[in-house]
Design a protein that fits this description.
This is Phospholipase DDHD2 isoform X4. InterPro entries: DDHD_dom, PA-PLA1, SAM, SAM/pointed_sf, WWE_dom, WWE_SEC23-DDH2. It comes from Galeopterus variegatus (Malayan flying lemur). Belongs to the PA-PLA1 family. The protein is an alpha/beta fold. Helix 5 packs across helix 23. Strand 3 and strand 4 form a beta hairpin. A 7-stranded parallel beta sheet has the order 14-13-15-16-17-19-18. A 6-stranded antiparallel beta sheet has the order 2-1-6-5-4-3, with helices on one face. The longest helix is centred in the last third of the chain and has 34 residues. About 40% of the residues lie in helices and about 15% in strands.
């Protein structure tokens, strides 16, 4: 008979065994069994469905205390609504439900927890219902007060709980398929540990978030409903981003936090994928989708096609309307819930989301001067390159002979597009050519469907792009160069952040300064210095350069000594010349080596590069440092590199640094 079965037999006979095996089986905690009863301290939990399983997650300590105070406040406590998780969720006490405030999410059950039992398939503890926990607590109180143990309780689900003593409390679950004629309940199922109070179970309970919000950032996702390799939603990924920021504020802005200069930065997700795919387009696609390789085709329809949707004027309008209206809606709601908020607003986009935000920002109108903004908007491009002239259009129509007439009348392409048949007839153009010209320009006008970009109700301070294809899309659209004087009408800052192996990311700076080759800004490691393998690589590069210089110098000296003239009559004068020339040559060698060494130093400490006004005159492209394991095979980590930003401390720290820098708050120690 196994040890578990023997324990089951002993417990069914109500025999309190105190053997060492029994203690290890039920994970006993050494504690003194006092005769004085102390009420249990409750903690509030909420239930989330993770991987199709119910998981009970504790509220942070501050939220749990607020919920307990509201619960204990009096008769009207059940009608109260308590904001939790930094104001992103509301808990309705009467319903015992937790609702998301800013986005759509399934409501979560909330429970005031005091008693727990260990789960079936993992080591996580599951709380009993509030009503049954009260029964357990009353039974425990009587057992402690009267010192009478071996109490047996049966739950509404026919589960048996036995309180042997304060050290040993177990839970039996009925075996599936057993009936009333089977064995007794205590002999059914595997015994599970029962714990009283959250302090006796292994669970991480975090502290609350700072109440003060210094800055608000909207985060827009890229293609598809999943944002990382774990197929998590934008809400879950932004939760990670926010958690990393809270940790970095504690470690890198410790002085400012201790002086109560800063609180925290709030990150709120913006979802446009669900509204786009709720338009009925998925049904239309399903009708034409082939039945083979069903999962791959479903993945393509759900993710990759988002890129094509954005290139379609019809669905592009839906996407930009959704993103802008969602950000405006959330901003308005945020101000209603945080009336004392005085901070600024920034926006961040990942992958295609960054392109959506770029297009929206480019088409904003400055409230101080809409006309000036409209004039500035086209200046993002200096050279379009592919736009045909009027003469080329007429040549394509084989109507070159009429170009002089248009030139004489000062009619350009825009004016010609407005001309009617009567206008062309008055200019002396025959019927046939008139029909050709009118049809050509009418067709081109109809084929060009414009997108009306909505306006934001706030002015973003900084735009952060993560793994962004903006540069590629601008180039494909025929835009060759960004005007160095161009800047967003309403946004002052722009940071293009990417991983070096990200296959979707492209640079921006070469479009502003096309004639100069220079490296992007290297983002410092959040722990300071460069990563070890990068320093090692640079050290080896310098070493090889030094060896090369020394070898060239030695070969130069050997070649001079080998080609020296052997005549005795010239030796005296030669030695004199050598004394004059050798220092010169040695100085040349030293200068050669020095120039090459200084060139390396110049590369490291290069003067500031002018990259236009898109980021207020500062650098735009910022590259992350790859991890050592990633440097072994960049192809293997390419996809992961595109999805790495959500948990990247280096990315989050750069965002925090730039935001707080505008407020005159800097890192405790500048990173190298």
């Amino acid at each position: 008979m196994s040890s578990v079965e023997s324990h089951q037999e002993q417990l069914s006979q109500s025999d309190p065994s105190s053997s060492s095996n029994s203690c290890s089986s039920f994970e006993l905690i050494d504690m003194d069994a006092g005769s004085l009863y102390e009420p249990v301290s409750p903690h509030w939990f909420y239930c989330k469905i993770i991987d199709s399983k119910e998981t009970w997650i504790p509220f942070n300590s501050e939220d749990s205390q607020l919920l307990e105070e509201a619960y204990s406040s009096g008769k009207d406590c059940n009608g109260r609504v308590v904001p939790t998780d930094g104001g992103r969720y509301d808990v309705h006490l009467r319903e015992r439900m937790r609702y998301a405030v800013y986005w759509d999410e399934l409501a979560s059950e909330v429970r005031r927890c005091t008693w727990f039992y260990k789960g079936d398939k993992d080591n996580k503890y599951v709380p009993y219902s509030e009503s049954f926990s009260q029964v357990l607590e009353e039974t425990y109180m009587l057992a402690v007060t009267l010192d009478e143990w071996k109490k047996k309780l049966e739950s509404p689900n026919r589960e048996i709980i036995i309180l042997h003593n304060p050290k040993l409390m177990v839970h039996y679950q009925p075996v599936a398929g057993s009936d009333e004629w089977g064995s007794t309940p205590t002999e059914q199922g595997r015994p599970r540990t029962v714990k009283r109070g959250v302090e006796n179970i292994s669970v991480d309970i975090h502290c609350g978030e700072p109440l003060q919000i210094d800055h608000l950032i909207f985060v827009v996702h890229g293609i598809g409903p999943a944002c990382d390799l774990r197929f998590r939603s934008i809400v879950q990924c932004v939760n990670d981003f926010r958690s990393v920021s809270l940790n970095l504020i504690q470690t890198h802005f410790k002085k400012a936090q201790e002086n109560q200069q800063i609180g925290r930065v709030e990150f709120l997700p913006v979802n446009w994928h669900s509204p786009l795919h709720s338009t009925g387009v998925d049904v239309d696609l399903q009708r034409i989708t082939l039945p083979s390789i069903n999962r791959l085709r479903h993945f393509t329809n759900d993710t990759i096609l988002d890129v094509f949707f954005y290139n379609s004027p019809t669905y592009c309008q839906t996407i930009v309307d959704t993103v802008a209206s969602e950000m405006n809606r959330i901003y308005t709601l945020f101000l209603q819930r945080n009336p004392d908020f005085k901070g600024g607003v920034s926006i961040a986009g990942h992958s295609l989301g960054s392109l959506i935000l770029f297009d929206i920002l480019t088409n904003q109108k400055d409230s101080l001067g809409d006309i000036d903004s409209e004039k500035d908007s086209p200046n993002i491009v200096m050279d379009q390159g592919d736009t045909p002239t009027l003469e080329e259009d007429l040549k394509k129509l084989q109507l070159c002979e009429f170009y002089n007439i248009f030139e004489k009348e000062k009619v350009d392409k825009e004016a010609l597009a407005l001309c009617t048949d009567r206008d062309l007839k008055e200019m002396g153009i025959p019927l046939g050519p008139r029909k050709k010209i009118l049809n050509y320009f009418r067709t081109r006008k109809n084929s060009t469907v414009s997108v009306k970009y909505p306006q934001l109700i706030y002015k973003p301070e900084i735009f952060f792009a993560f793994g962004s294809p903006i540069g590629m899309f601008l180039t494909v659209r025929g835009l060759k160069r960004i005007d160095p004087n161009y800047k967003f009408p309403t946004c002052k800052g722009f940071f293009n952040i990417y991983h070096p192996f990200d296959p979707v990311a492209y640079r921006i700076e070469p479009m502003v300064v096309p004639g100069v080759e220079f490296e992007p800004m290297l983002i410092p490691h959040h722990k300071g210095r460069k990563r070890m393998h990068l320093e090692l690589r640079e050290g080896l590069t310098r070493m090889s350069m030094d060896l090369k210089n020394n070898l060239l110098g030695s070969l130069r000296m050997a070649w001079k000594s080998f080609t020296r003239a052997p005549y005795p009559a010239l030796q005296a004068s030669e030695t004199a010349e050598e004394t004059e020339t050798e220092p010169e040559s040695s100085s040349e060698k030293c200068s050669d080596i020095d120039t090459e060494e200084t060139s390396v130093a110049v590369k490291e400490e290069a003067p500031p590069i002018k990259v236009g006004m898109l980021n207020g005159g500062q650098r735009i492209d910022y590259v992350l440092q790859e991890k050592p394991i990633e440097s072994f095979n960049e192809y293997l980590f390419a996809l992961q590199s595109h999805l790495c930003y959500w948990e990247s401390e280096d990315t989050v720290l750069l965002v925090l640094k730039e935001i707080y820098q505008t407020k005159g708050i800097f890192l405790d120690q500048p990173l190298q």
